[in-house]
Sequence to fold (187 residues):
Amino acid sequence: MNTIRTGLSLAAAAALLAAVPGTAHAETVPFVGSLDIGAHGLPAVIDRGTTVNFVVWYREESPDKVGVLGRGIGLYAPMQGAGSSVNERGVTVSVQDPTTGKWAVWKGESGANTGDYFSWLVKNQFEITPGYWAHLNMRISFSKTAYKGQWDLYESPVEAYQLVNSHGAAVEGYLRFGEGYSTFIVR
Fold:
């Protein structure tokens, strides 16, 4: 009896989703390639009062170019207790614009102390050529008041994107993202 109810519930849910505009279409969008991500130059231990320069590398593998529309990172101190997962106090994140070479401080998303740093609409949009390793230069400064302990960094140099074919037309599809994750200790 439970199997029949579950099957009917799933069938009803599927029918309902198919009736909602846009939902059935999302299921048919294919994965057309991958995005490999990694950080280089991030030490395992960082002293408070230090600025760390590092590079986030990424390579797109698909038949199409990727137009980068947004990028981001997540920076979290998961073990600071009291149910909190982040504390941006004493932390400054900077990124170098790959098209202009200028450095800019990257503010936390909505000033909500979430640890999320995203630029959803990249001011100077650019394309990544398939098979080519690209990079994003970054800096994180930890003041003397920064949280001591373990920090996690989730790299997402291509947070929002548009696939574009050789004729410049948009391509429907998704990229599978490789793991862009680093852990370090601030002391």
